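seq:
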Amino acid sequence: MSVVEVARDDGATLKGVTSTVLLDLRAVEKVFADKVVLAPTDLRVDEGSFVSIVGPSGCGKSTLFNVIAGLLRPDGGSVTLQGRDVVGATGHVGYMLQKDLLVPWRTVEDNITMAARLTRRVGANDREEAREIARRYGLGEFLDHYPKALSGGMRQRVAFMRTLVTHQQLLLLDEPFGALDAQTRLDMQKWLLDVWRESGRTVLFITHDVDESIFLSDRILVMSPRPGRIVADVDNPLARPRDIDILTDPTFVALKARIMHLLHGGTS
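struct:
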């Protein structure tokens, strides 16, 4: 396990292989009503990686996501995606919240195609893609069902499929499994890893669950209380693929202890 400074200018991955930086934030900050919510923050995310952010409530995690997505303009700093300035721009990321936000009077198929529905007419190709992705990820038999007929885990799968079909390389997932029971949550974590590995997308993931961050991620970013800033960038040495047995691995336990220490004001 290693904890490195936030600024990483060597362009290296965990295994020392040069990779492509997809997202690059430099000195991004946000102020609301004269209160600093997000202190100047640097963040780099490599293409194809899975990075989690953990931190106390109110530390600016969701604010950071909203800045990346272009829903909020930062009060300082830069945000680039694939080298392009995206400050204040929208439509360049897939964004999934904790609430599934499924439209109750729309079927599973219609909810998956919602992004297209909001911007243009839904075509035959959109519907075929929705059917194919639902079949691939275990909901092919439920395409004509309405959200009220689905379990919590199934609803989150539909919401994630809706995010996938935006065809964005960067997916922002803001506590997508926070409202699920423990067993369903673990099942969804394993499912997400399978989808991530197959799709080749890049994931930036917010969670309050340290176990979840370790199980899923290549790196775990630890944020301080408000005004939030990234205080540690922790590499995850656990090999992939991962299953539930890894939750009791000594390396997992030691990594959890270090992150908990950092979350409660300890230093690296």
